[in-house]
Amino acid sequence: AQKVTQAQTEISVVEKEDVTLDCVYETRDTTYYLFWYKQPPSGELVFLIRRNSFDEQNEISGRYSWNFQKSTSSFNFTITASQVVDSAVYFCALSEAGAGGFKTIFGAGTRLFVKA
Amino acid sequence: GAVVSQHPSWVICKSGTSVKIECRSLDFQATTMFWYRQFPKQSLMLMATSNEGSKATYEQGVEKDKFLINHASLTLSTLTVTSAHPEDSSFYICSARTGTGVYEQYFGPGTRLTVT
Fold first, then answer.
1. Which runs of E-coded beta strand occur in B31-100?
2. How far is A16 from chain B (nearest CA, A)?
3. pLDDT per residue over B15-67, tens digit each?
4. What residues in B contact A42, CB-CB < 8 Å?
């Protein structure tokens, strides 16, 4: 069975601090996909990144970076020089193949507060 | 990018009535649609997966007679909450996938249901 654990329920930082959001996953499949989504107060999910299980390259996109380590089943997300606009709930998600095709499940989410 | 819309964006209904939520893929054909439910300050929980022209597959614990899902066309899926009660109040999010590629999955903006 697939499972996503985001152990950090809430994180509070001061603007310009770096912050890392942790994500640990469980899956029996060798082919799977990992995602990070941002959910601002409006509720609409904002897609941030997708990684497949065969691509362990870390990725950087502006102030965002992701560290994927299959050895520890982790897919952590770092925001550098955080800004107030980064305040939101961040979800890590996992897709693996099922009887009806891939389906995506979400971790519990980490609520990030960035204070000015 | 591909767009998924939901209608209505919010709805208030009285206990005992039924409510229908529509999910449309605006610029692509969605062979599979997913329905998620999100309670306040909680994660998205997958309710069901529906493939066009066939019956939906419900996740464990989701009452299929209460949450009726119809995916009659490649661009439209509907979720009907029958005999709604206050505990059904939640944020309902649909997601649409094209083809079989997991990465081609797009989320709607969500529908906030309040049952009084």
1. 32-38, 44-51, 57-58, 67-73, 76-81, 90-97
2. 26
3. 999 999 999 999 888 888 999 999 999 999 999 999 888 889 999 999 999 99
4. 109
